[in-house]
Design goal:
Elements: E1 4-8, H1 19-29, E2 32-38, H2 46-57, E3 64-68, H3 73-80, E4 86-91, H4 105-113, E5 118-121, E6 136-141, H5 145-161, E7 164-171, H6 184-199, E8 204-210, H7 214-224, E9 229-233, H8 247-255, E10 260-263
Parallel strand pairs: 1-2, 1-4, 2-3, 4-5, 6-7, 6-9, 7-8, 9-10
Antiparallel strand pairs: 5-10
Helix pairs in contact: 3-4, 7-8
Length: 272
């Protein structure tokens, strides 16, 4: 159950890209919406506070402002969302975006440390995106346990917004034994996830996508099905500093036309 949706803002237009999906998610799920910001460099306390109040005044959904003055942005976001039913919806870049950073330093840090699922709004987020009456949530599997956790998180979102889940896995031609025939374990995993989602009351089906580039296939699938959200695991690796997301996740987030629900290494939610 989604109880609270946190949308971190920093006064920039880039960060405000997360407002549309954040508000839509909170409204459809009946969740509390919280707009969060921290102290801005070179600005007094009143500036960010007034900014939050102004943003809330223009929303179609009630929201609570949260101004955190004693934490760095990533720490403030992670600590605020450290509660049952919390979800973070944020843009991948904001104030002072560093072009050399893959997804922006704050977004990367939140992905690394957040126990809550994080919805990332990338640079190719479509201005035509909307939460339609019968939305589709795509859950990308790759045979790993983290991707099963992402599928479970996708089911939670789907239940909250009355959506169906499209479970997909991208397999290279070399992963197929013969034309049209997959390894039994792959099919069993897909069928098991669909069965579990259905048991939870979430309509679901699965499809195997053939292609050499998993990210390209997932982005195209999201376009073809006008997905409301696309869910996948971050596959974070230790020892790489700020770099949290695996190459497939990075490319998918950067190019997806819809928000991407990413389950990071610190995620504490359930898995199938």
């Amino acid at each position: 159950m989604i109880r609270t949706v946190y949308v971190p803002l920093d006064g920039s237009e880039l960060a405000q890209a997360a407002l549309k999906p954040g508000v839509a998610l909170a409204a459809r799920a009946g969740a509390e919406l919280v707009l969060l910001t921290t102290r801005w460099p070179g600005a007094g306390v009143d500036t960010p506070r007034n900014y939050l109040d102004a943003r809330i005044a223009f929303l179609d959904h009630p929201a609570r402002p949260l101004l955190v003055l004693d934490r760095e942005p990533e720490d403030a976001i992670v600590l605020a969302a450290n509660e049952p039913g919390a979800m973070i919806c944020m843009a991948t870049h904001g104030r002072g975006a560093v072009r050399a950073a893959v997804l922006g330093s704050v977004a990367e840090a939140v992905m690394r440390e957040s126990a809550a699922p994080v919805v990332l709004v990338g640079g190719q987020f479509s201005p035509e995106w909307e939460l339609v009456d019968s939305p589709v949530v795509i859950a990308a599997l790759d045979g790993s346990k983290p991707s099963l956790a992402a599928a479970h998180a996708a089911g939670d979102v789907a239940a909250a917004i009355t959506a169906r889940v499209r479970v997909v896995e991208v397999l290279r031609p070399s992963d197929v034994i013969t034309v049209g025939e997959l390894r039994d374990a792959e099919v069993e995993m897909l069928e098991d996830v669909v069965d579990r989602l259905t048991t939870l009351g979430v309509p679901a089906g699965y499809e195997v996508l053939d292609g050499f580039d998993a990210a390209d296939m997932l982005v195209q699938d999201a376009r073809d099905h006008r997905a409301a959200f696309l869910a996948l695991a971050s596959h974070g690796r230790t020892g790489l500093g700020r770099v949290v997301l695996g190459s497939v996740a990075v490319k998918t987030v950067r190019h997806a036309p819809c928000p991407v629900l990413v389950v990071g290494p610190a995620y504490v939610g359930a898995a199938f």
